[in-house]
Fold each of these.
Amino acid sequence: MGKIICVSNQKGGVGKTTTTNALTMGLSDRGLRVLSVDFDPQGNLSFSMNAVCRNDSEATVYHVIKKECRITDAIQHRDACDVLPSNLLLSALDVEFTGAGREYLLKQALAPVLSQYDVILIDTPPDLGLLTINAFTAADAIIIPVLCDIYSLQGLIQLNDTLRQVRLRSNPNIRVAGVLLNRFNAREKVSGVVRETAASIARSLDMPLLDTIIHTGVALTRAQIQQENMMRTDLRSRAVNDYRQLVDELVRRGVVRTDA
Ligand SMILES: Nc1ncnc2c1ncn2[C@@H]1O[C@H](COP(=O)(O)OP(=O)(O)O)[C@@H](O)[C@H]1O
Ligand SMILES: [Mg+2]
């Protein structure tokens, strides 16, 4: 059965899409069958994976949820992985589904293909609204990328409140795989303080702080713009190697299994 991991943080620009993309490629390099789900109406993950749906009638995760097509018809196949794309249409979900059970839409949509993948990664929008709640409801685990600044770290408290609600209402089993420090710059004088503060806030919320830290690296941005495989784009890039280490750490912590 596929393990579902969502990458989430209500703040924009913290590295959710970058992390989803890098983990998709990194886990696929380990021989795992990976489905990468874009659950953000901005469609950034779809773009970086060359799975853009410009035409309103092209099948996306939105059409699957609306039961206008089967999930297998919306999934696009790439060399390394499969992608379930999204576009702006997804933003309508909030007003179109108002009744009971609206937090289970994504979980139900993914159910038919769960056995076909080892890992399903979900990229989420920068808020704690219905789409993110759907991702939390579907997921076994969550990875939370944060920038190395105090406001980003304080945002964890709000995110934790939402997680608590989800555990009570729709998914008692979701666990935090870890908080991931992103865009770390070891040369900055405050970097040590950032790490300590992150550790202390994560501890107070009972969330593990991942040992792996993602350094700032232009190779990541370039790969996304050029729609290249992020893990192959620049083998000397420290940030790319950080993501490789993150895959190792997720295996070590039992978040994903490579021997399934
Ligand atoms: N470690 C990093 N080093 C350099 N650029 C990064 C890094 N992480 C993310 N970025 C860049 O920052 C921007 C925002 O990242 P993104 O993953 O889109 O954030 P989010 O999905 O949380 O909004 C993108 O242009 C991305 O390429
Ligand atoms: Mg994003």
Amino acid sequence: MLRSLDGEVALVTGASRGIGRAVALRLARQGADLVVSGRTKEDLDSLANEAEKMRKKTLVVPGDATKEQDVKKTVQMAKDAYGKVDILVNNVGIGSYKPFAETTVEEYDAMINSNVKSTYLFTRFVVPLMIERHYGQIITISSGSGHAGYAGEAVYCGTKFAEMGLMESLDRELLPHNIKVSTVSPGGVNTFFAFGAGRTKGDPSLQDMLNPDDVAEAVNFVAAQPWKSMVTEITLRPASEPRY
Ligand SMILES: NC(=O)c1ccc[n+]([C@@H]2O[C@H](COP(=O)([O-])OP(=O)(O)OC[C@H]3O[C@@H](n4cnc5c(N)ncnc54)[C@H](OP(=O)(O)O)[C@@H]3O)[C@@H](O)[C@H]2O)c1
């Protein structure tokens, strides 16, 4: 049976829309208070209103997840407001699908920074708080593209494999500190992600994709396990999508 997250604090990155927003609201419904980050303040404020209807506190910290100072500020504000972060969900990510030979250095930098550096930064500044309290969970949203390489998305796959490597290593390194490290790897999810860079609005295949709430359920399943039970990895995909 899943446990209540009452009294716990969840920091969700990229919470302004898509999977991050759904995850934040699902964890709030399970009892967690929130810290939500992203660049679009109005969307974070609207998320906070939703969470407050569930009588959950929400700290909104707008910022760029690729910038060290913004991430440090977010974690410091979480510490000042709550004294702790129990659950970190590394969700920020962007995708750009195109032939490798057409991928620009700027697109490479943007994907590496948004997907890998943001995950490094949030984890880097949250882990000391968790070590201090000998308690915590880190859940990173990777992808099916973090398990298999696909034509037309080599750099994106590279970033998602990198997240898997980071998290697998941290699972081993942080176990003695009573910190659980897990990954959730979805297949296609119907979100803004990759619009204009691989997907187009109205694409009929969007209808067959997972919804953000499907991924949020998986994240909540990981986060709300009884403490002695550990879900290392969830992969979920649309039923219409082949196995990776
Ligand atoms: N959608 C899929 O098919 C799919 C499949 C597998 C895995 N994933 C993974 O799921 C995660 C979430 O994707 P999604 O589908 O929910 O995409 P999305 O709808 O585009 O949402 C991305 C979120 O990340 C935030 N974000 C992006 N760059 C940021 C930055 N530099 N600083 C701060 N926030 C930033 C965006 O907010 P702002 O623009 O307001 O900053 C937004 O809240 C990603 O890691 C992605 O790789 C997605």
Amino acid sequence: MAKTRLAVVGVGLIGIRHAELIAAIDEVELAAVADPSEVGPREAARLATRHYADYREMLDRERPDGVIVAAPNQLHLAVGLACVERGIPAIVEKPLADTLEAGAELVLAAEAAGVPLLVGHHRRYNPMVEATREILARGALGRLVAVNAVWAVRKPAPYFDATWRRTTGGGPILINMIHDVDCLRHFCGEIAEVQAYGSSAIRGFEVEDTAVVAIRFASGALGTITLTDAAPSPWGWEAGSADNPNIAASGQNCYRFLGTEAALDFPNLTLWRGAGPEPASWADPLAATPLAWAGHEALPQQIRHFVRVIARAEAPRVDGRDGLATLAATMAIKQAIATGRPVAPAAAPAAGARA
Ligand SMILES: NC(=O)c1ccc[n+]([C@@H]2O[C@H](COP(=O)([O-])OP(=O)(O)OC[C@H]3O[C@@H](n4cnc5c(N)ncnc54)[C@H](O)[C@@H]3O)[C@@H](O)[C@H]2O)c1
């Protein structure tokens, strides 16, 4: 069977990983990469593929079956639209776009053209995520009361050489916290309202280096997220899950779910509950039961899923509207920080609103 030909736009930190995976996965072929910087030709030569400085030229000449958009956030709309206009399915890395308006424009354009659009919230392809969702959905914790999430790392100084990461449209809320927002939406349901504080006191950039968020879910459950890219810690998705070779694994938990009958930590998936039929009271000892799950890296699963979406054999697991809802909740956090007031995520545009 002919291999699915995929191209990558932007071969920086994450684009290189996508390109390497495509080159390594049997059912796909790396058709070309586009990147105007000096890394473009270098990576293309290393991966034995063609290089283009201009992604439009690459799309027109190569006509790939699908594209992974891994350029800076501020370019996602332009590159995504170029794919949609040519009828080429795309995975756009998260955030879907650097503004809500840009994200909505891309989603509506893809819907109008009938072109599959996926958003790179790759954590959803990790089996421990589905295991957790299933544990929560079957009521193993009773009614969900609250959840807390931490993502704390110290990024290396050269990471910030790329201007886009420290200016409007970049920053760790849009680059990193958006993953946790997406996971919490996936686990706990829609976010009704957020309150938040942000700080740039450590790095002094235009964008935040630290933020804390309080969440009210539509279900009535409450949540918090603590984020910083300026403090070393063992707590965060990648450290806990060992799902990213660029971040040292710690095996520590990054989420804690609290229910009326039991508690669950994540990603270790240990269920804490009393031995009796009634929920444990504070004096009752809690038994810790490890729940089994088989982990693997999520990014290759996302690529395999993309192949099936391109063949129209599956619907996108995280489609443009899903990515837009996560972006809306994330932008609500930024707005809450800017205004000092609680903010509800903006509603999605009606289908066909563009026309
Ligand atoms: N899913 C994840 O876990 C994950 C991880 C990291 C980054 N990301 C996202 O991926 C995107 C890229 O992040 P990064 O950290 O790899 O950034 P990066 O700065 O390391 O890489 C971006 C690359 O895009 C290139 N580029 C710039 N303009 C371009 C253009 N016009 N056409 C083609 N390429 C262009 C740059 O030269 C650079 O090589 C961002 O949207 C980021 O939020 C996702």
